[in-house]
Amino acid sequence: MSAAFARTIKLLEFRTQHAIQGFERVQEWRRSSAENFRPWSEFLALPAGEQDEIAAVKGNVISRLESPAERFCRLLAGTELTTVDDDVLTYVQGPRFPARVRDGKITISRAEHGDDALIFREPQHPLLDEDCEGTVYVAALAADAGRMVLADEAGRILGSVARQGRVDLADRDALHREIGRVRGARVADRELLRGYLLVDTDEAVAELRRHNAAALAATPRLEEPPRRTKHPAPELTPAERRERAAQTSLQAARSRRLQQLRETL
């Protein structure tokens, strides 16, 4: 399921056959149908005569809409990205909940982390000292529950507290398992990003077209339903016409009255 979901995301991010507003048109070229399309800047660098020869062959020069991934890169060109602090990211992602300081520590219970209580305490931590006893912070847990971010009621982040007893450093087997888990998660994230950036868009689109053609070929054709014959509306009697005209006039009067009430309010 995860592989199918990742593949779907790739196809969505690199699709060029769409009608989404705000996307620019991109021109590409190739020398023959055996080659992949190249950036238009390379075509403009060719001699004029060679440009004419290439453009004379149908299909060598195309114009298409840019993909979502291309638009993302274009809009970010020249933009300097700043890494978000881990505490800020944890607090923004949430969920956030109240956490009270008791006996120099914060203790919570979460069903998703088992039946054992989670204890957050660090020696001489300024947010857990004697002056902070009984203080209620707005807290958020990191994804691995190894750190709790604390903020005040206004949402200002004050700091974070590590979870006590997260990993026993004296237990080499437990420590190696934790190191392996963290490394595996980071490698998986890098491979997922690498797949997004290095996907072969031409092959992905061709495979999608083959799949759609096979699905349509296997679908039985539906017969067109018979068209309905339109019958003229029955002619109204004079009394019916007067009644319908009165109803129309009454509805118009009600609409004007509602409009006057809205303008008054």
Molecular structure report:
With 265 residues, this protein is of the alpha+beta class. It has three domains: 75 residues, no CATH class; 77 residues; 44 residues. It has eight helices and nine strands. The strands form three sheets. Strands 4-7-8-9 form a four-stranded antiparallel β-sheet. It has a three-stranded antiparallel β-sheet with strand order 2-1-3. A hairpin with a 5-residue loop joins strand 7 and strand 8. The longest helix is centred in the last third of the chain and has 27 residues. The radius of gyration is 33 Å and the shape is extended. The chain starts with a helix and ends with a helix.
The oligomeric state of the chains shown is single chain
Number of helical segments with 4 or more residues: 8
Note the beta-strand portion. Answer: 15-25%
| Lateral strand order in the biggest sheet | 4-7-8-9
Which residue ranges are poorly predicted, with pLDDT under 50 across at least 5 consecutive positions? none
Range of helix content: 40-55%
Overall mean pLDDT = 81
Number of domains: 3
Task: Report the sheet with the most strands, covering strand number, pairing sense and barrel closure.
Answer: 4 strands, antiparallel
Order of helices and strands: HEEHHEHHEEEEEEHHH
Distance between the termini: 55 Å
Number of strands: 9
Rg over alpha carbons? 33 Å
User: Structural class of the helix and strand makeup?
Assistant: alpha+beta
| C-alpha geometry | extended
